[in-house]
Design brief:
Layout: H1 4-12, H2 16-19, H3 21-25, E1 48-53, E2 59-65, E3 68-71, H4 72-79, H5 87-93, H6 96-104, E4 115-117, E5 133-136, H7 141-146, E6 157-159, E7 165-166, E8 170-172, E9 183-184, E10 187-193, E11 209-216, E12 219-220, H8 221-225, H9 232-236, E13 242-243, E14 248-250, H10 251-254, E15 261-266, E16 269-275, H11 283-293, E17 301-303, E18 327-332, E19 336-342
Parallel strand pairs: 5-17, 7-13, 8-19
Antiparallel strand pairs: 1-2, 1-14, 2-3, 3-4, 5-6, 9-12, 10-11, 10-17, 11-14, 15-16, 15-18, 18-19
Pfam family, one: FAA_hydrolase
Protein name: Fumarylacetoacetase-like C-terminal domain-containing protein
GO molecular function: hydrolase activity; isomerase activity; metal ion binding
Length: about 350
């Protein structure tokens, strides 16, 4: 049985040579690599994007401009500008320039029918089919301390699957109590890859990032950590256990990802309030380390860990798990508030 403790302890028991791999990667040169995704891969700049759930059931891009949102599908047709309609299309095929042109047309009467009031939008999933959903565990110093674990010497990695992806303002339908009942929040910065990255250095790592989102690594702790399951995959990957949104913000608008305030509120009560400057492994180190083991492709996403304040870190007699009817709000500086409810 692999428990949380044995899983995380294993990451602290590596040899000194392996532990030095992160530092060594800083001077390494990126290996030659050809992405399976052809086409231009200019990174999006100056863009804040969201996903619109359309009446026909599709989920297409919107561009946030102040209080209004440009429906990219409608604007593309009105202006005759072929543009990517989903995050996957944007990141894998490119053509961010088309979105920039559409945004620049915001004042034109021609685009007026494509302008939406964000208050009336039904949000779609920002990501529906990423090639990889990589998650980094135990990546904040205070969080490691609150659960009594040593800081890992390399990033502990696990994954979620696409069935877990969910939209801003979604409702997560919890499984029956006989399946799980120890539900917990984890507000996390999400890294969105924009270029194929294989064996990249820490120095160059941010050059491969398209942007960032607010995300929540929602978890069933009993499935994750207790018998008869004790499986991280099951505890982390039930349907809709990875809400992301409401926005994708391009990297140039975010600046330093290693100094962003983040917060979790449950029914209005602050539960987590900290900063990514408490990362054990910063954004560059995570990307460099992961890319040493496999290729990160455009559109791959990385959950970066959560700070202290999760229910799991409370004394056992004060652990009041989330339940149907609760509202969770995850917010990250510059990236907006992700809201979802439990049912």
């Amino acid at each position: 049985m692999i428990t949380r403790r044995t899983f995380l302890t294993a990451t602290t028991a590596v040899t000194a040579g392996a532990a030095l791999g992160i530092a060594q990667s800083a001077s390494a040169k990126p290996a030659s690599h050809t992405s399976k995704y052809a086409g231009p891969h200019e990174l999006p700049k100056g863009l804040t994007l969201l996903s619109i759930s359309q009446p026909d059931g599709s989920e297409t891009l919107g561009i946030k401009t102040g209080s209004a949102v440009i429906d990219v599908r409608a604007a593309s047709s009105l202006l005759g500008i072929p543009a990517p309609l989903t995050m996957e299309e944007l990141l894998r095929k490119g053509n961010a320039a088309a979105l920039t042109r559409i945004m620049a047309s915001n004042g034109s009467p021609k685009i007026r029918p494509a302008l939406l009031d964000e208050a009336h939008i039904t949000y779609g999933r920002l990501f529906t089919n990423p090639g990889k959903i990589v998650c980094v565990g135990l990546n904040y110093k205070r969080h490691a301390h609150e659960i009594g674990m040593p800081e890992p010497r390399v990033p502990p990695l696990f994954n979620k699957f696409n069935n877990a992806l969910a939209a801003h303002n979604c409702t997560i339908e919890l499984p029956p109590a006989g399946i799980a009942h120890k539900f917990d929040y984890e507000t996390e910065l999400l890294i969105v890859m924009g270029k194929a990255a294989r064996n990249v250095s820490e120095t160059d790592a941010l050059d491969y990032v398209a942007g960032y989102c607010t995300a929540n690594d929602f978890s069933a702790r009993d499935l994750q950590l207790e018998l008869p399951s004790s499986q991280w995959m099951i505890g982390k990957t039930l349907d809709k256990f990875a809400p992301i949104g409401p926005y994708f913000v391009s990297a140039d608008l975010v600046g330093d990802p290693n100094n962003l305030k983040l917060e979790t509120r449950v029914n209005g009560e602050i539960r987590q309030s900290w900063n990514t400057n408490d990362f054990i492994f910063n954004t560059q180190q995570m990307i460099a380390y992961i890319s040493r083991h496999w290729t990160l492709e455009p559109g791959d996403i990385i959950f970066t860990g959560t700070p202290h304040g999760v229910i799991l870190g409370y004394p056992k007699d004060k652990q009041v798990w989330l339940k149907a009817g609760d509202e969770i709000v995850s917010s990250i500086e510059k990236l907006g508030e992700l809201k979802f409810r439990l049912a």
